[in-house]
Design a protein that fits this description.
Strands 6, 7, 8, 9, 10, 11, 12, 14, 15 and 16 form a 10-stranded mixed β-sheet that branches. The chain has a 6-stranded mixed β-sheet with strand order 3-2-1-4-5-13, with helices on both faces. The chain has 7 helices and 16 strands. It is an alpha+beta fold and 250 residues long. It is 31% helix and 29% strand. It is globular, with a radius of gyration of 17 Å. The longest helix has 18 residues. It has a domain of 120 residues: ATPase, nucleotide binding domain (Nucleotidyltransferase, domain 5).
C-alpha cells in the first residue's frame, strides 16, 4: 500500500494506491492551505480505508517542479512519515504524474504527444514532452522552464497541452489546430501513486537524506534563447534512480 502526496501546485491531494487501484483519496484545490490541511487529509484517507499508518509500504511524493512552498511541505511531510514508520519514499516528478493523468483519461487518441504545463508565473511554465500511445507514456525531453508562448511554438505536431500552465493560452488559436489544450487535467495524488507503484524506485535512507525538490528556477543552466533546463546537480539523485517516466500499461 502506497500513500501518495501531491502539493506541487494549488492542488493539495492525498491518495492510497495498491495494485494500480485507488483505494481512497482526498483533494482540495485552494491556495495556501497545504500546511494546514495535508496531515488531516492523510488521517482521513487512512480512516476511509480502515488502515493504520503502520500498514503502509511506502510514501510517494510529487517532487516538482512546482510551488516552492508546496514542494517543501510535501517533501518534509513524506520524509517525516517515512522516517517515523521506517518505510521508503518514492519521488515522482510532477510532470510525469501529470502526463500519466492525461493518459488515464483515454482522451489521447488524437494526440501523439502530451505536454504537461505547470504555471511558473512571469508568463512561464514548467514543461516536458511525452510520447503517448495505447501502450503508455514515455518521456521525450528534459524537465524545463520557458515562456508559455515559446513552449507552444517549439512543440511537435499533434500535441495536447494539459495542466494549469495551459490555461492562459487555451483560447488562442494562433498556433494552429494541431495543438490542443486541456487545462482541466491537473496534478493529482492518485497519479503520483500509480506512477510510483509501476515505475518508481524506493530511495535508500542516504538518498532520501539528500533529496530536494525539483525547483528548476534555483538551479538552472542558461541556454540559447533563454530556455532553462534542470541542472545536473539537482537531477542527480532522481536520474540515478529513474531516468524519467516510461510507463507502459499492463
Amino acid at each position: 500500500m502506497i500513500l501518495a502526496i501531491e502539493t506541487a501546485t494549488d492542488v493539495c491531494g492525498v491518495a492510497l494506491v495498491q495494485n494500480q487501484n485507488v483505494i481512497a483519496q482526498r483533494v482540495l484545490l485552494e491556495k495556501y492551505i497545504h500546511s494546514e490541511k495535508l496531515l488531516p487529509m492523510i488521517d482521513e484517507v487512512l480512516r476511509d480505508a480502515s488502515l493504520s499508518a503502520k500498514q503502509l509500504d511506502a510514501i510517494a511524493v510529487s517532487i516538482g517542479p512546482g510551488s516552492f512552498t508546496g514542494l517543501r511541505i510535501g517533501l518534509s511531510t513524506a520524509k517525516g512519515l517515512a522516517l517515523s514508520l521506517g518505510i521508503p519514499v518514492i519521488a515522482v516528478p510532477t510532470l510525469d504524474a501529470l502526463a500519466y493523468a492525461f493518459f488515464r483519461t483515454k482522451e489521447w487518441a488524437s494526440a501523439a504527444v502530451v505536454c504537461p504545463m505547470i504555471d511558473a508565473k512571469r508568463n512561464e511554465a514548467f514543461f516536458c514532452f511525452y510520447k503517448i500511445d495505447a501502450a503508455g507514456v514515455s518521456r521525450q525531453s528534459e524537465y524545463a522552464i520557458a515562456l508559455k508562448s515559446k513552449i507552444v511554438e517549439m512543440a511537435p505536431p499533434s500535441v495536447m497541452f494539459v495542466g494549469d500552465g495551459a490555461k492562459q493560452i487555451e483560447a488562442s488559436r494562433e498556433f494552429g489546430t494541431s495543438r490542443e489544450f486541456n487545462p482541466s487535467i491537473v496534478c493529482s495524488a492518485e497519479s503520483v501513486g500509480l506512477v510510483a507503484e509501476s515505475a518508481g524506485v524506493k530511495l535508500s535512507p542516504e538518498e532520501l537524506s539528500r533529496l530536494e525538490p525539483l525547483y528548476l528556477r534555483e538551479f538552472i543552466a542558461t541556454q540559447s534563447g533563454g530556455d532553462r533546463a534542470i541542472s545536473p546537480h539537482r537531477a542527480s539523485i532522481l536520474e540515478e534512480q529513474r531516468p524519467g517516466l516510461n510507463h507502459r500499461s499492463g
